[in-house]
Fold this sequence. Notes:
Layout (H helix, E strand, L loop, with lengths): L3 E5 L3 H13 L3 E5 L2 H11 L3 E5 L7 H11 L4 E6 L4 H9 L4 E4 L4 H31 L7 H13 L6 E4 L6 H10 L8 E5 L8 H6 E2 L11 E2 L1 H4 L4 E5 L6 H13 L1 E3 L6 E3 L3 E6 L3 H6 L5 H7 L2 E4 L10 H16 L5 E2 L1 H9 L5 H15 L4 E2 L1 H7 L49 H12 L1
Parallel strand pairs: 1-2, 1-3, 3-4, 4-5, 6-13, 6-14, 7-10, 10-13, 15-16
Antiparallel strand pairs: 8-9, 11-12
Helix pairs in contact: 2-3, 13-15, 14-16
The site of adenosine-5'-triphosphate (ATP) has 16 residues, from helix 7 and helix 15.
Amino acid sequence: MFPSILIVDDEPSILQSLQGLLADEGFEVSTASNGYEALKHIEQDSPDLVLLDIWMPGIDGIETLKEIKKNNPFIQVIIITGHGTVETAVKATKLGAFDLIEKPLSFDKIVVSINNALNFRRLEEENKYLRKKTIEKHSISGECGAVQQLKQQIAAVAPSDSWVLIKGENGTGKELVARTIHQLSGRSSNPLVDVNCAAIPEELIESELFGHEKGAFAGALAKKRGKFELANDGTIFFDEIADMSLKTQAKILRVLQEKQFQRVGGSRTLTVNVRVLAATNKNLEQEIEAGSFREDLYYRLNVVPIEVPPLRQRSEDIDRLCEIFLQESAKKNRTAQKVLAPDALKMLMNYPWPGNVRELKNLIERLVIMVAKPAIAGKIFRCHIILKPAVSPAPRPSSCSGSTASRRPRSHLRRSICGASWKPMTTISPTLPNRLAWNAATCTSV
Ligand SMILES: Nc1ncnc2c1ncn2[C@@H]1O[C@H](COP(=O)(O)OP(=O)(O)OP(=O)(O)O)[C@@H](O)[C@H]1O
Ligand SMILES: [Mg+2]
């Protein structure tokens, strides 16, 4: 690849000498002797980089820079000037110039600056491409009414700076919703920092959230920035918020109210600008009643509540989700793409999916690896989703308000994978309760 460079200067001797030297370095070089000519050339040829003189007749370098950046923000511009003042440098930098080099020009300096600018552009493009891939990979799939409503809610709330409380059962896609809100918000070019409230030990939480100064405690060998600081100008996502201890809830409430904090062992007060998203699979109203969640924190977080529906309430989407997961798994495992036989799809649509989309995704991945045939038949699922009575765990509080979590037969099911022979590990007992018999009938009828 030969990066293309446009040199813009009204001095013919500079155009000539730079053109020759840069061409020798392997660049594809063109020239323009004023701003108008440069803009016309850029419109037709879109170079990778422009070397731009400031003082020129007609429109000067600063005006030309403004026009270039207006229509082509990814073109790198290096200013060359014989009359460099701090004011000009500041103005050019504010307008997006990559560097400013003073005349008389040092060729080595120019080549270093050009290479830095081109590397920066390459990284920017790579970053843009990876972001796009990530958004595509993590997009919310599904077209049924409940998912369309969810997408509409996300589209409405994302551009606002409002805080959002995302509720839903395990594996429904709460984290995916949080990521989508961030991606569609004005903060998307800044970080999304997630805090897994269930995974951080109590004694580390302060340092994790607020950071610490060197020597703040035994083992604090260097200064560390906390999650709040890292999320500045971006979004902080508190996942499994109900698993945060009351003590930690009090600490974050203060920061959320005042937007200020100090690093552990530090005395400087830091101010942050963060948008807060939180997710939970628990019923926070019930947690408040039980005394394990602060009411004031709940009202702070619950500005816009979003409920992610369980998969059993959107079974029309199972077909599409399977197609996506079959495709993803084949790609990931470098195998040929498999299809579902119609009887298999019917069976999946009737299964209650206690583990929601995550359960479906994992099951498909497992079958893509384990099944040799190109089509996955219903009888194969019968081997993989085995229903039998289990020892009932303590009843979980129902999930979010309006959810049907308490009605589903979750606690009566245990799924298991059969061994290499693909035979069911157990048969379904004729004495099972009626609702289990429904599942058993569904499974054995295919
Ligand atoms: N609508 C969807 N389309 C495509 N993939 C989805 C969808 N919903 C969820 N997924 C995928 O399912 C998996 C689980 O989603 P996610 O982690 O967002 O769920 P969760 O509600 O946060 O789960 P948990 O409560 O266990 O933390 C992820 O791999 C996610 O990409
Ligand atoms: Mg999650």
